[in-house]
Amino acid sequence: MARAWPRIVWSLAAGALCTAAGCELEQAPVESSAYPTAGLYTPGSALGASDPSDLMPPATSLGNRCASLAAAGASTAGVLRIEYRTQSLMGRYAPKNCSAVWIETADGRYVATLELSAALRRPGLVYFQDHACSEKLGPDVVTSATKSDHMKAHSAMWSGADFETKPAPDGAYKLMIEVAESDKEPGELTTFDFEKGPMGFTREAPVAVDGPLQQVTISWELAPGGNAGAPGG
């Protein structure tokens, strides 16, 4: 209704003038772009950021985020599973929220994206936009529209491959989780260190009481047969 209000006022005023003059009322065509939606962060919306100032921030000298790992070494086959719940930090559009989960090496190289709940609201995920190769997300990525609330738990997985589907070498990695409820300021980024290798594990990761995450469970489950050989093999 908010979108149609200026058009209705114009039509009524024109109608009154034409009645007095004895003319016929003819509405001029109105471009839909003249009245952008008032429903910001609507799940599934096909519109972009809420205003022209919501632009993707420039990269902060993190290097080529789309460079392959291209590292030799053993690569244990397995699956990393992440279960987590979010909570509101009373942002601009709370409880509506966007989130992203991705993997980086210990030295900050992008590996793959596991979950992206934002669709065209990605500019609100400023850390993800800066750290990830947004053109090549990865083989395991699950995407969805902006979440309407924080009620449902999240579940993501990583098959141990980089965004080019090559097995990532064993070693230290970082699990990155970003949650945002605004497109005017950065969201909250939380990182967890883990080891990809021949030893499986399951652990409850510590989270801040006043942070965006209620709980996080991380598990590395070995595949039958264990070792996948060198990356790319």
Give the SSE layout.
Layout: H1 5-21, E1 76-86, E2 98-105, E3 110-117, H2 126-131, E4 142-144, E5 154-158, E6 171-180, E7 188-196, E8 201-205, E9 213-227
Parallel strand pairs: 3-4
Antiparallel strand pairs: 1-5, 1-9, 2-3, 2-6, 6-7, 8-9
Q: Number of helix segments?
A: 2
CATH class of the largest domain: Mainly Beta
Helix content: under 10%
Main structural class: mainly beta
Describe this structure as you would to a colleague:
The chain has 233 residues and is mainly beta. The model is unreliable at 1-59 and 229-233 (pLDDT under 50). It contains two helices and nine strands. 10% of the residues lie in helices and 32% in strands. The strands form two sheets. The chain has a five-stranded mixed sheet. Strands 5-1-9-8 form a four-stranded antiparallel sheet, with no helix packed on it. A hairpin with a 7-residue loop joins strand 6 and strand 7. The longest helix has 17 residues, at 5-21. The chain has two domains: 5-34, no CATH class; 76-227, Immunoglobulin-like (Sandwich), CATH 2.60.40. It is globular and about 45 Å long. The termini are far apart.
What is the structure about, briefly put?
With 233 residues, this protein is mainly β. Helix content is 10%, strand content 32%.
Feature tags:
233 residues; Immunoglobulin-like; 2 domains; 4-stranded antiparallel β-sheet; 32% strand
